[in-house]
Specification:
Keywords: Membrane, Transmembrane, Transmembrane helix. The chain is mostly helical. 82% of the residues lie in helices and 0% in strands. The chain contains 5 helices and no strands. The longest helix has 60 residues. The chain is rod-shaped.
Length: 159
Amino acid sequence: MDWTPLLSTLTGAVIGIAATLIADRNRWRREEARHALEVRRAVYTEYVSALKAAGEEIRAVALGDHMSESARDAAVREAVRGTGIYTASERLWLVGPPPVVEAGNEAFHCLRAIRDAYARGVAVGSADDAPLIERRRKAMARMRRLMREDLGVGPLGIE
């Protein structure tokens, strides 16, 4: 009996199955990478939005009238808590690569410095406020740049 046709058929079947498995594995990897990118995009958007909201909230509180220093302090701190920034920060720490997490943490600490200054009574737009705002602006720009790089989006060139 001639085994050549049978061996050729088996070899072709093995090659076909292996090629299918490799193609399926590659497709799965692409889908996983695409899903991970979408998760990071959602987390980055949530975090940047929460930082912006927290900044706007504490600014609004700082512009208001408060009966006492302790009331101002409590109002500013509550304004930050109500934005969901702490949850968004934890999500960033879970899925972001180290450079993005570091930049996000720096932006968060800049926001906290502003929060603490407003809680102490620093006036919005004052000479004491300006360097804090500038530091936060730079930290936010760096964070956004790193997030855009991680997502494969080109630089804006406007910050």
